[in-house]
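User: I'm writing a tutorial on reading structure tokens. Could you give me a worked example: one chain, its sequence, then its tokens, then a sentence or two explaining what the tokens reveal?
Assistant: Sure. Here is the example chain.
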Amino acid sequence: MPSWYPKGYFVQNTNFDFFNYAGLHRSVLLYTTPISYIDDITITTDVDRDIGLVNYQIFIQGSEHFQLEVFLLDEDGRAVAQGTGGQGQLQVPRAHLWWPYLMHEHPAYLYSLEVRLTAQTADGPVSDFYTLPVGIRTVAVTESQFLINGKPFYFHGVNKHEDADIRGKGFDWPLLVKDFNLLRWLGANAFRTSHYPYAEEVMQLCDRYGIVVIDESPGVGIALAQSLSNMSLQHHLEVMEEMVRRDKNHPAVVMWSVANEPASSLKPAGYYFKTLIAHTKALDPSRPVTFVTKSSYEADLGVPYVDVICVNSYYSWYHDYGHMEVIQLQLATQFENWYRTYQKPIIQSEYGAETIAGFHQDPPLMFSEEYQKGLLEQYHLVLDQKRKEYVVGELIWNFADFMTDQSPQRAIGNRKGIFTRQRQPKSAAFLLRERYWKLANETWHHQSAVKPQCVGNSPFTF
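And here are its predicted structure tokens:
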């Protein structure tokens, strides 16, 4: 009612469930370049038996008269391949492949691509130099599997947010190192950058630790028909161009997500997502593309165009409050309906329950640690059945509690984290740790005759 507020009073309302921090979240760096310089590099990789193939394309600004030398160095600094010119293929015999964390004895192997430019200008010769980490790996999708280097990969990981209680969304190296230590402790091999591209330093650590990434655009809050307009679509296409240009060379990035929980059952969504996904695939034909849906299988108009179906569901949380006994039936039905309709691999991209650390109830009640743990256990019973068929991943919502706008539904932010906002574990963190290490050991055993052990605080010993 107008009389309730002062004249000119305005509050920004958003259609997403995380705090919209203002200000600069990351460092801003200014740098100079020579008159002629290396503007961009695109790397794609493949494997032919034991030969690694590194395809490169280099873009130069400021001169049409230049020479390029390209060297690929191993982790010891030895040149294993070299080439010349702005485009070509380097062949690496007995290549070390980039493997995800817990999938190989030596995960996350990185080569270094050195590019040396000499350009002729009116002022004489000019040189430039750039080094790019390169991981040799392949990604493929079948109707029931997600393959990395030709081997089935199962996502067992988390969703995250760039959020903490001191710096908010501001980049913080100690916090980032802490989070990666917790991911490794947890036995997580993957996360989704919900719901925006994360800082470049995050992606670089993922490359070096072998943490697989579903890289998501800031396509969140697409809730109304006007959000699917041609103007919105044009902007979304530009956003995907920027995101692919920035993150295309990260071996950790195995799939693009163009949006989170859009109104994909509305009539314009079919054309919108058909166009958006086709554009993203044209930008990068080497990776599958998805978006994360909460629509029903019979109404979703965008899912026909994705490579992997990512589904969010919160059984016994946002409905059937407290009735965990219905989760198994509802979740199994969800998976069966999606797969019967599309015959595509499925990831349970969000599931979870709000939990106040230190709240305990027996029998389990909502918001207690026991309820979160019990809800996860019900999901896991179904996931263990369906991962033998066509489910290729599970990502808990959320890694840690995070701030949101104020509302009667949010007790100082979203409390669905398995860690608190200060990164202290709730009971569910120990449940997931036991599960994820068990999954890792099963995956390793499937690929090797050596079965790893899980001993004390050092699981996965060789």
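What the tokens reveal: The first strand starts at residue 37 and ends at 48. The domain at 139-461 is CATH 3.20.20.80 (TIM Barrel).
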